[in-house]
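Re: that chain you flagged

S.,

Sorry for the slow reply, it's been a week of failed gels. I finally had a moment to sit down with the sequence you sent. For the record, here it is as I used it:
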Amino acid sequence: MKLIVGLGNPGKEYEKTRHNTGFMVMDRLAETFQVSINVKKFKGEYVKFKYRGEDVILLKPMTYMNNSGESVIQVMNYFKMDVEDLLVIYDDMDMPTGKLRLRQSGSAGGHNGIKSIIAHVGTQNFKRIRVGIDKHPQIPVVDYVLGRFSKEEQPLIDEGIDHAVKAVEMMLDKDFVAAMNAFN
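Prediction finished late last night. Pasting the structure tokens below so you have them in one place:
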């Protein structure tokens, strides 16, 4: 079984903001796999489906970014999952818009959603796909990440989301190392 988590904030006011890039990837994954992320449980919204004989869960925590780990650990405990089966997709403002970085472990790097997940699962050794949202200009970080992509940035983030979906598919078809080799 695999748990794929996209990070973001719930509510209309946060839709399509930079900080909701993980949710955008989840929505595109749901389209790709022809499923709906619509079961409300575990402080989130999720769908469980079969892909090539394996159970896959797509999860969007509805706890707000800073408490994402609460939702993740509830799903992992309920389905008796190991941290090796966890993949988290989220925004990274230290990379150019749309660029991907796949890692098998690492620190939170200042990302509050990842800090929460590390605190709840008890390790930083879980797979992640970071999607670049570019460096913030001289405005407060919170204002930047809760802002929307510009008209110029939109094609770049759309391409990054497409690549993230392809990386997930490659992970499910082969393994995470193959996805890292293809998309890093």
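What I noticed first: The chain has a mean pLDDT of 95.

Talk soon,
D.
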